[in-house]
From TrEMBL:
Protein name in UniProt: Metalloendopeptidase
Details of cofactor binding: Binds 1 zinc ion per subunit.
E.C. numbers: 3.4.24.-
Signal sequence range: none
Keyword Protease: yes
Cofactor annotation: Zn(2+)
GO molecular function, one term: metalloendopeptidase activity
Organism name: Ancylostoma ceylanicum
Keyword Metal-binding: yes
Residue ranges of domain Peptidase M12A in the record: 1-94
Length: 271
């Protein structure tokens, strides 16, 4: 991913800190060799190195997103929605289904079963218009006074490699939701938040991978941001977010142990 021909629009390289044996891994491709089908650059792609990848001095990053809030998003260990879309586009799978199925929230028809859609994180059902099955629930934001949502993901069962619980916070039409992270489990600073965390999808583009903030989060504690975040360390506590719509998917996940967090939420009515 960091070798895309357009990567310089999104990344700043610290070339002096790249291990000389790995300099070729950071060489940008040419547009002729690198077709991306107009799919946006994805900091959360499984193909993206983490920010300290191949560093001579591992206390310093080898690359920093131009939007620095994404620094902990780099280094994901799972396929992102845009990874799936890119592969299906490249191999011509999208044309296998007719136009009759209408996927919501940016999903696309599943070429292995054209009666259902492949959905962005936080969405499920045949048409990506429902909360995914399993743990979690829907809560209503109707008060301008904060209320608390406790999210919890239990220990992995035998044979499981990960577990995810999805919650939806919904406000009345035309309203928005303000959220504040009150508490969460702590595994220390982890690139990609790949051990576990909570993702709060407040951004307009629900297909995109969100921020996984810890190193730079203190810069933004007093700012309401419209974006999608992943949190996994104690330094994230106190972050305030503002949604771009009246629905906010909240996904708690773990790949090793129990994860829990507490989120305050309230409705923000239109002016």
């Amino acid at each position: 991913m960091q070798s895309r021909h357009d990567r310089d629009k999104y990344l700043l390289l610290n070339k002096d800190n790249i291990n000389p044996d790995n300099e070729g891994d950071f060489k940008a491709e040419t547009p002729e060799r690198n077709e991306n089908y107009d799919i946006p650059y994805d900091y959360g792609s499984i193909m993206h190195y983490h920010a300290w990848g191949f560093a001579k001095d591992t206390s310093k990053p080898t690359m920093v997103p131009k939007d620095e809030k994404y620094i902990r998003t780099l280094g994901s260990r799972v396929l992102s929605f845009y990874d799936k879309l890119l592969m299906n586009t490249h191999y011509g799978c999208l044309g296998k289904c007719d136009k009759n199925i209408k996927c919501a929230n940016g999903g696309f028809p599943n070429p292995k079963n054209c009666s259902e859609c492949i959905c962005p994180g936080g969405y499920g059902g045949e048409l990506c218009d429902k909360r995914p099955k399993g743990c979690g629930k829907v809560v209503r934001a109707t008060s301008t006074s904060p209320r608390k949502l406790n999210v919890f993901v239990g220990e992995l069962r035998e044979g499981e490699v990960s577990r995810e619980c999805t919650y939806w916070i919904e406000a009345p039409a035309e309203s928005k939701v303000e959220l504040k992270l009150v508490s969460l489990s702590n595994w220390g600073i982890v690139g990609g938040c790949h051990i576990g965390g909570v993702e709060i999808k407040t951004q307009e583009d629900q297909k995109a991978t969100g921020y996984r903030s810890d190193l730079f989060v203190q810069l933004y504690h007093s700012v309401s941001l419209s974006a999608c975040f992943r949190f996994c360390t104690k330094s994230d506590i106190g972050m305030t977010l503002l949604s771009s719509s009246n629905r906010v998917p909240v996904m708690a996940y773990n790949h090793e142990s129990v994860f829990e967090a507490t989120i305050e939420y309230k409705v923000v009515k239109p002016r």
